[in-house]
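hi support,

uploading two proteins for the ticket. first:
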Amino acid sequence: MTEAVLEERAPEYWMMRLKAGEEEALAHLMARFEKPVFAFLYRRLAGETGVVQELTQDVFLKCLQHCQRFEEGRPVAAWIFTLAANAATDHLRKRGRELPPPETFDAPDPHQPAPWDTVDQSRRIRSLRQALEGLTPRQRSMVVAYYVHEHPVKRIADDLGCAEGTVKATLFQSLAKLRKNLDVTHESRT
C-alpha cells in the first residue's frame, strides 16, 4: 500500500491497529489530531504554551497506554478530545491546589488603599478642616449641608430662613474662599 493511501485511512482504522499492538499507528493518529488537540488545550488553558505542549504529549501517551479501553464504534476524535479535556481539567485542579508562589503572599490587596494613600488622605482631610475653619459659621453650615449632607438648595434656604439665591451666592463665595484657603495650606507645606 502506498504512503498516500495509508494517510487517507480513517482514524478508527489506526485505532484498531494500535489496539492490535502496532504502536506505529499512534504516529498516524498524532499526525491527524496533534494540532487540533493542541488548539483545544491552548484555548482551554488560556494560552499557557509550555503546559499545552506537555499536555498534548500526555494525551497521546494516554492514548497509547489506554488504547484497549477504546470502544469500537465510538468516534476516535471524541475519545481523544475526552482525553484532552480530562488532561486540562486535571491540570486546572492541580494548579488550584498548589500554593501560590511566595511573592504573592505579600502582594497588596488591590481593593485596600495603600498605606501612603491613607496618610495622604489624612493630610487632605486635615487641610480641608483647616480651610473650613476659615469660613463664617453661616458659610460653613451651607457648605456642609449642600456638599456633605447633599441637601437641595431649597431645603437649605428654608432651614436658614433665606432666599435660594442667597444660598447659591453664599455657596459660590464659600467655594472660592475654600479654594484660596486650601491653596494657602498647600503652599505652606511645600
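and the second one:
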Amino acid sequence: MDKFFLQQQVLERLAEDLLQAEQAVRAAHETATHEENIAENKYDTLGLEAAYLATGQARCAEAIRQAMAHWRQFRPRPYDASKGIQLGALVCLVDSDDKQQQLFLGPGGGSMKLVSGAQLVQVISSEAPLGRALLGKCEGDEVPIQVASIRQQFEVLRVH
C-alpha cells in the first residue's frame, strides 16, 4: 500500500471539504447581510444568527486550510522497528474479535476513511486516543485503550 497515494487522497478529500466550507461561509454571509434580514425588533435575530454561523464556518475553513498545510509538509517515512510506530506508519491491527483494520497514522485534521485497492484504511492522528497508544509500539505488541467507559484491546499485526 502506497503511503504517498494515501496522502494524496487525504489532500483531495480536504480540498473538497474546504470547498464545501467556503461555500457555506459565503451562503451564511449572504444571509447575514441580506437586506431582508435586517432586524426589525429585538426578537428578529435571523441576521445575527447567520453572522454567528458565518463566523463558525470561517473557523472551520481555516482549520481545514491548516490541516492541508500540515498534510502537504508531511513526509511519511519507512517503518523503523528500533523506534516503533511513528507518524507515517501504516498499521494493521486485530481486535479481540479477530477483526482486522488498517490505520494510517498522520498529522492532525485528516481523520477519515479511505479506500486503497480493495482495503479500507482509517486515517488517524497521533492525537487520537488510539494514535497516542500506538506510538512506539512494534509488531506483536498489545495496545490497550480506554475511551470513556469502554476498554478495547488490539494487537499490532503488521507495520509498514
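thanks. also noticed: The mean pLDDT is 92.
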